[in-house]
Amino acid sequence: MKKYILLPVILLLLPFLIWAQTLQSPNGNLKLGFEIKQGIPYYQLDFKGKAVVLPSRLGLELKNQTSFLEGFELGNISYENLDETWKPVWGEESSIRNHYNEMEVTLLQPGTERQLIVRFRLFDEGLGFRYEFPLQPKLAHFVVKEELTQFAMTGDHIAFWIAGDYDTQEYDYTESRLSEIRPLMAKAVTANLAQTPFSPTGIQTSLMMKTDDGLYINLHEAALIDYSTMHLNLDDEKMVFESWLTPDVLGVKGYLQTPSHSPWRTIIVSDDARDVLASRMTYNLNEPSKIEDTSWIKPMKYVGVWWEMITGKSSWSYTDEFPAVRIGETDYSKAKPNGRHGATTENVKKYIDFAAEHGFDGVLVEGWNVGWEDWFGNSKDFVFDFLTPYPDFDLVGIREYAKNKDVEMVMHHETSSSVRNYERFMDEAYKFMKDNGYNSVKSGYVGFILPRGENHYSQWIVNHYQYALEKAADYQIMVNAHEAVRPTGIARTWPNLIANESARGTEYQAFGGSKPNHVTVLPFTRLIGGPMDYTPGIFEMDISKINPDNDSWVNSTLANQLALYVTMYSPLQMAADLPENYERFPDAFQFIKDVGIDWEESKYLEAEPGYYITIARKEKGSNNWFIGNVNGVPPRTSMISFDFLDPDKTYIATIYADAKDAHYRNNPQAYTIRRVVVNNKSKFSQLTAPGGGYAISIKEADKADLKGLKKL
């Protein structure tokens, strides 16, 4: 009897230590607790007995209706589990295990006669949960004023974050304590670093954190469909994050109709940073592919007329004569060429020749179509037509030239964020692509969104990106979307989304530079949701040697640039530098030519966000392995084992590494190349420079290949 007398007292004093409903991950390391307390739903997450998320409330505030915040009673609870394996069209491995335990909680709101479902899925590496709004008599159309999901942290964690801008993710990451975010954010706003208003005290996902006791925590979202993008506002006194959805021009966060659901809110957690990189939870929370025949979706390496424009050596525009261009009315045949246009027939053929000579699949050409003279910053609705080439770009001739060289041309569609204009031309533009042999498109959304007042990450624009992707699938076109919303694993469902930019890419190295450790953060943040078209492979770090008027510097060693082809996963990889710079370093360029782009399996050998990453990947369809290591600012000795290699085989490893005196700023092109014999018992130690790294190509060898080579 004493047990039953004391139990209510314990619940009263410690209401969140005993949970009404619990769920464990398949391996038992993660434990979820759920309870309704005074009509309000709460959850908590533990890892190996340690709290990861303290009791945190769930709910949504609705506009002009009673909100889904309180007044709840517990309805039905059901449990499911799944253990399956699926094969991605492309990826970091050829098969992905989807293994979770699920708890579906139905919340009843008697005062409104409505119900809300919260679905929890607990994987070995983390938690995903979402709100579901079933079809019901008392709820049809509704407007989300705000989603108020909380993530209560256990302390003042170290975080790698970027500001909660509604229109861009293209920032360097800041490493700081959570308590330091607000003052650092205030400095950024004062310095006018924000392109648009921030969420009040917010930061963007994917957010990477580390606790003082060694837990790695990542907050993000999965399956962002027909909903606003989530930012995170931080109460830095209580250390509680709360979701903050991107608003539209009216300040509204979402327009929904039952049946519908939110995206998944995701929490990845481990005491080993490598597990965060290895997680496929974001993909697993998305639906299977909706494209039945995926034979036309193929990973590719490409070069392009791009870096010379980014550095300022050449221009996108054909002429300087037109202060204001009206598409369809401006007669370019009478214009005087500016002499700097990059997308000329002659220049493009040079890139096609280079691609053909070195085995690249495609060539991207930017600035091929009319309208670039006043495309940016003028809020033009009708800005490009995606059909009409400049006079010096022979589209048909280039098409045939590339075809004869067995090189595929990659289309470029810059929209200048005039979304209505792109949708106006989309069918015609995609048909034009197919008629001219273009099977992939790089789309761009530079500038503020039209219609005016919308944001890059509000619900309406998120729906546009999805519309463009699905329309491209109708025409069997692969999409590489730049400046679009950050990916949330949707490439599982629509694998023609072969890459995104959606972060600070290599172009910023020509716009003043990025932090040397930027590439040691991106795989823990931006790449959690899908591959990035980072455009690596820069060999000339001094941009003034390309354009004397640009004094930017690429903050990386050459060996680091090689390693990015392994550490920055993408099935679409660009050799971004000018052909002449590759011709200066043909021995290093060989790694870019050799490295795979589609993988059988991946091994995460070393990892610490902001400091270093080492990854080994086995190429799909071969026995070749490739290793990439990128290092942050402090020099470091990387130590790895080759125990992932087959035990009964011998290999030759070609090692491209920083020289002893290499440094991203003082001596970036100092590198060494050596060939050694390795097997699965080999150990490897390598000093990595500030902003440096190494890349290794490992190929199976026969006895004749081993002559004269030393064992590692």
Q: Your description of this structure?
A:
It is a single chain. By secondary structure, the chain is α+β, with helices and mostly antiparallel strands. It has two domains: 2-284, Beta-galactosidase, Chain A, domain 5; 300-596, Aldolase class I (TIM Barrel, Alpha-Beta Barrel). The chain contains twelve helices and 37 strands. The strands form seven sheets. Strands 6, 7, 8, 9, 12, 14, 16, 17, 21 and 22 form a ten-stranded antiparallel beta sheet that branches. The chain has a seven-stranded parallel beta sheet with strand order 28-27-26-25-24-23-29. Strands 30-31-32-37-34-35 form a six-stranded antiparallel beta sheet. A hairpin with a 2-residue loop joins strand 2 (30-37) and strand 3. The protein is globular, with a radius of gyration of 26 Å. Mean pLDDT is 94; it is low at 1-16.
In short:
The protein is α+β, with helices and mostly antiparallel strands. It is built from 12 helices and 37 strands. The strands form 7 sheets. Strands 6, 7, 8, 9, 12, 14, 16, 17, 21 and 22 form a 10-stranded antiparallel β-sheet that branches. Strands 28-27-26-25-24-23-29 form a 7-stranded parallel β-sheet.
